[in-house]
Amino acid sequence: MGSAANVQLEKKMNLAAYIVSAVVLLLVGAMRRLPKLDLGIDFSFLPPLHATLNGLAAVFLLAALYFIKSKNISAHRNMIYAALACSALFLLSYVLYHSTTPEIIFGDSNHNGILDEAERLAIGSTRTWYLLLLGTHIVLAGGILPFILLTFNRAFTNQFDRHKKMARWVYPLWLYVAVTGPLCYLMLKPYY
Questions:
Q1: What does the pLDDT look like over 101-160, one tens digit per residue?
Q2: Rounded to two decimals, what is the model's pTM?
Q3: Domains in the chain, please, with CATH?
Q4: Rounded CA gap, 146 and 129, in Å?
Q5: H or E segment to which residue 143 belongs
Q6: Is 95 helix (H, G, I), strand (E, B) or coil?
Q7: Is the pLDDT higher at 14 or at 55?
Q8: Can you spell out the DSSP letters for 46-79?
């Protein structure tokens, strides 16, 4: 493909990236506001899978960095594909879980869905740290998705200089999201 064809393909892929990002944000927003779906299946087994998929995405991202620094472009590309696959599977599973399962509250040790004063005192400032970590994770996860896709599009269309320029700031944010997901899970795990 020539350069003009690459630019045209990138434009089409970018439009798809914006549409996918908008649909994902709408789904994530809707799953918290709509009544929980009853599919007749208990999906409470999914949070460890979410943490595993995020953790694997982080491992693949670190491997991708190693391979690109080693100038092994093929291995780099494969690791990015693997990280994207893990992130996509995570997203589907996450929406399914939160669309069907009541929310778990950090500190709710009696599992009644209410954080009472005694529970709040028992966890102290740990809840603040958890909410700060979770908040940055959620905001960055929602905000970084279109940029991950746009960065991918630039590499896919062989516009490597533009890809590299964008990846320098997208990569660390994606890695942060992939690492903080399992950390949030481990902090919330006692309350499942």
A1: 988 999 999 989 899 999 999 999 999 999 999 999 999 998 999 999 999 999 999 999
A2: 0.89
A3: 3-191 (1.20.120)
A4: 27
A5: helix 126-156
A6: helix
A7: 55
A8: HHHHHHHHHHHHHHHHHHHHHHHHTT-HHHHHHH
Two structure tokens written together for 147: 């940029």
Give me the phi and psi of 25, to 5 degrees please.
-60, -40
Name every residue whose Cβ is closer than 8 Å to that of residue 191 and which is 6 or more positions away in sequence: 104, 105, 106, 107, 108, 109, 111
pLDDT at 32 over 80: no
Residues 166, 139, 164: CA angle, nearest 5 degrees: 10
| Max CA pair span of the chain | 66
Contact 72, 85 (CB under 8 A): no
For residue 76, the Cα-to-chain-centroid distance in whole angstroms is 20
